[in-house]
């Protein structure tokens, strides 16, 4: 909790109003208004952010831009969807994913709060840039160039990723240094390939790659019989389509990308990858109405390229943008439980799936070549096991042109 009732704190500590004010003034990480006291990193206040307690008692940081069209940027607690939860948790995670640019060279830990907040503040308040560009739904990118020469470490400016609420309030989602991100117009359609995987009272995320096929992380379904799994689309409150079988891929089955496989995330000695067979997937929304099929990316994913990650984090739908690292095996993006199996899209095509996270960002199963081979191997295995419906088609051999016309895996 970031805030406490002012009167309750004074009573608990046996302090008079003047004594409480003296205690707050003596500690830079404490502050308060007439009704609340709060704990917040003083670097945020020094950079120009104003702490505000919202109607629900949550602490929010607010920053006004010089340009009235740009408006106010808010930083709230980390809890996907409703932007509640501890603000200081969000600050810690922002520091983690900002370590690659708001930190000294060769430093691979979380960024110090002071330069991170100052860079974001200068860019938002005084930065030079055009209008925002829509990624999809309520996710937007502002590309801004801080005017101060002290920020020469950002010669190409900064992408400020914001989630715009229905009220118009702009919430900081991420920041990415570099030239303006070119986000494909196909991302909205590609994101529609994302589905929720229901595992008892828990959820994971998957992505549709074929007529009856969904890919997710192995640890989402490991140890769970297919009859206990269903696929749905929580955004549209659709029916639950049962999973009739799933297969995994062992490391020694990956012959074209053996080196990449040894470097990839594993679970139970296998690739952290599972292919689910869902015969009723084509009717998920209603008879004959179904999710999109994600096209698979080709080639390498450059470091610092923008990756769009879609998923059901903590059971709630969320899109985010983060910078690629390690050729598409990591992303400087915030994900949380429920986000395992989330697709990561590059230029509107499926580049990787999320397999985990830490304070430095998301761990991904990629690059595209490894993911493509895993899909082909798993599809062929499902066919041999008799798991695929009769009209599902056969998998396309590796290194040959791929496409979905016969209902096979869509690269």
The backbone outline, from C-alpha atoms, is globular
Q: What is the radius of gyration computed over CA atoms, rounded to a whole number of angstroms? A: 23 Å
Structural class computed from helices and strand pairing: alpha+beta
Per DSSP, the total helix count is 9
Portion in helices: 10-25%
CATH architecture of the largest domain: Beta Barrel
What is the strand content? 25-35%
What is the fold named in CATH at topology level of the largest domain?
Answer: Thrombin, subunit H
Q: Unreliable runs, pLDDT <50, ≥5 residues?
A: 80-84, 393-411
Major beta-sheet overview:
8 strands, antiparallel
CATH class of the largest domain: Mainly Beta
Distance between the termini: 45 Å
Taken together, the total number of domains comes to: 2
Number of strands: 24
What is the average of the pLDDT values?
A: 85
Could you explain how this protein is built, in words?
With 411 residues, the chain is an alpha+beta fold. The chain has 2 domains: 138 residues, no CATH class; 229 residues, Thrombin, subunit H (Beta Barrel), CATH 2.40.10.120. The chain contains 9 helices and 24 strands. Strands 11, 12, 13, 14, 15, 16, 17 and 18 form an 8-stranded antiparallel beta sheet that branches. A 7-stranded mixed beta sheet has the order 4-5-6-10-9-8-7. A 6-stranded antiparallel β-barrel has the order 19-20-21-24-23-22. Strand 22 and strand 23 form a beta hairpin. The longest helix is centred in the C-terminal third of the chain and has 17 residues. The protein starts with a strand and ends in a 27-residue tail after the last helix. The C terminus is likely disordered.
């Amino acid at each position: 909790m970031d805030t406490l009732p002012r009167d309750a704190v004074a009573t608990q500590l046996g302090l008079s109003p003047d004594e409480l004010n003296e205690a707050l003034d003596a500690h830079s990480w404490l502050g308060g208004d007439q009704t609340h006291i709060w704990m917040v990193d003083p670097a945020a206040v020094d950079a120009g952010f104003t702490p505000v307690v919202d109607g629900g008692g949550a602490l929010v940081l607010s920053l006004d831009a010089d340009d009235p069209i740009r408006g106010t940027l808010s930083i709230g607690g980390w809890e996907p969807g409703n932007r509640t939860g501890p603000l200081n948790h969000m600050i810690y995670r922002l520091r983690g994913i900002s370590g690659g640019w708001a930190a000294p060279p060769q430093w691979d830990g979380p960024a110090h709060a002071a330069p991170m907040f100052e860079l974001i503040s200068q860019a938002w308040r005084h930065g030079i840039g055009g209008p925002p560009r829509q990624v999809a739904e309520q996710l937007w990118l502002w590309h801004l160039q801080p005017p101060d020469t002290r920020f020469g470490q950002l010669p190409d400016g900064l992408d400020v990723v914001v989630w715009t609420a229905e009220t118009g309030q702009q919430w900081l989602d991420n920041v990415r240094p570099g030239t303006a991100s070119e986000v494909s117009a196909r991302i909205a359609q590609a994101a529609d390939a994302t589905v929720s995987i229901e595992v008892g009272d828990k959820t994971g995320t998957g992505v549709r790659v074929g007529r009856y096929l969904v890919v997710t992380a192995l640890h989402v379904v490991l140890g769970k019989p297919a009859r206990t799994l269903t696929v749905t689309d929580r955004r549209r409150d659709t029916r639950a389509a049962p999973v009739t079988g799933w297969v995994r891929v062992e490391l020694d089955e990956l012959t074209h990308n053996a080196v990449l496989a040894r470097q990839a995330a594993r679970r139970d000695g296998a690739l952290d990858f599972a292919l689910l067979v869902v015969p009723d997937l084509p009717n998920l929304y209603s008879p004959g109405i179904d999710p999109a099929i994600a096209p698979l990316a080709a080639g390498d994913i450059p470091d610092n390229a923008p990756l769009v990650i879609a998923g059901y984090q903590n059971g709630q739908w969320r899109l985010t943008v983060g910078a690629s690292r390690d050729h598409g095996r990591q992303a400087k993006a915030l994900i949380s439980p429920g986000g395992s199996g989330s697709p990561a899209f590059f230029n509107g095509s499926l580049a990787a799936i999320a397999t985990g996270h830490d304070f430095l960002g998301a761990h991904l199963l990629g690059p595209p070549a490894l993911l493509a081979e895993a899909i082909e191997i798993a599809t062929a295995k499902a066919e041999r096991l008799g798991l695929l419906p009769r009209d599902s088609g056969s998998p396309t051999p590796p290194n040959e042109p791929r496409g979905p016309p016969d209902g096979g895996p869509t690269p």
